[in-house]
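so the lab meeting is tmrw and i was supposed to have these ready like two days ago... anyway. pasting both below. for each one the top line is the aa sequence and the line under it is the structure tokens. i havent really looked at them closely yet so no promises
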Amino acid sequence: MQQQYDNWKELLTNSFDHFISTLVAYLPNLFSAVVLLVVGLLAAALIRSLIVRLGQWIERFAQRVGISSYYFRVRWPITRIIATIIYWLVILFFVTAAARSLGLPGIAEWLNKLIDYSPSIVVAALIIWAGFVLGDFTREKLAARFRGSRIQQAEQLGNAARILVITLTIIIGLGQLGIEVGLLAQLLVILTSAVMLALALAFGVGAGTTVANMIALRNLGRHYQAGQRIRIGEVEGVISELSKTAVILDTEAGQAIIPAKLFQEQECILLDEGD
């Protein structure tokens, strides 16, 4: 019994001594790895701060000299995007060095491959960022144009165009990363066709009344002119102007704007030829 106890004691003592000796031998590598990680975090934070400040300085300078660039007003400024990408690349570089210091060749090799792949990641990120910027710009312009044409669902159509642009740039970005995007490209074609059909229908519905008024006014110009007194429906007055889509009458109650297509739908009586 005593012999067995001594054997266990010797086994535990040897194991503990081996653990301590291994830990002591490994401490320099562990210390180096910790130092590398701390230095990497500090360096990455410093570089990111410098890039952000440089971008802010460029923005102030551009505004001072009167340069109005759209990307200064987007919600994802390019300088912050670049600063964030470089921040993580610097951290990745120091993490790789720390893995080598700890004697972890497998992890270090994998991180090295990721570093080699980083240029493609940066380009893909910038392409996708540009897609979001262009998508926002397209949405604002289309929505404003549709609102000006009195087309309903202007905001929805603008959002659809934004999604289309962003989807296109995401597919391009994924292709930059070497990802097979054939199926996504086919889906994009279908989505594009659907959006274009929606835009065509919206334009047709929204512009239908305007086109009808313009056509009707061309016919009215052959029979009516400014200065004539007419009655259409319950409205009576003197024609003051034939605009592009309506007839403007001066009535006793004030100025009345009559859509031109109403002259084809209702009876109009010429009361006085005028001068």
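ok protien two:
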Amino acid sequence: MLTLARFATAMSLAVSLSPNSGVAETITSARYTDPTTRYDHGILGDAVEWGALEVTLDNATKRRFILPDTLVFEDTSPRLADLDQDGSPEVIVVESSLTRGARLVIYGPSGRLAQTDHIGRKNRWLAPVGAADFTGDGRLEIAMVVTPHLAGRVELLAYDGTNLKLIAATTGFTNHRIGDQLIAGGIRNCDAGPQIVLAQMPWRDIGDSPMVALELHGGMLVPMPFAVPFTDGNVAKAQACALSPE
């Protein structure tokens, strides 16, 4: 069993062995490794989750962050986004506790940088949407849907280099159905600025739910409906600015 202490030691060792110690490092890619069945949630369609995150740096060094047996990466794939616009992307992932559910975590070249609290119960999950500059401050905010099969709580989070701060939230929208292997929806950035494209709940069958765009106005996420249903094709058209809300 890999304890939290051993996890911290492993991260410290990886950093100390880096050939570029003291030099700024840039992550160029990331992937999940070490498949595991220790978490029996299966929200993404099978019983397999991931036990480690592997990042590749710009000097071709690979670095692995191994979770303790109490956690898994319950996710489709890691997402790279330069949240603080310093020229070096961070990695956005979903970690789930076997007893306390999911949390959003930001990783850098040396390990965890920030995280949200766990949802608080086993088998409670969240689905990231993406990142964009919703506030106009030059930094990217992260959009995610907490419990997309229950409350459908959309949260917009700001990363300040140390913490993730909630800046806006609303409920009743989703980007995932139980058993789907992929997370749907996304972010479009057209004439009106960044908007979160999601399905209005409930969403059970393809084409049976209205598609909406959520836009940040006065500290609130305001939904604007499209005249078409929520499908992968319509999401792609919306992201390509070929479809707009009414």
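from a quick look at the 2nd one: The CA atoms of residues 6 and 49 lie 21 Å apart. Helices lie at 4-16, 232-239. will dig more after coffe
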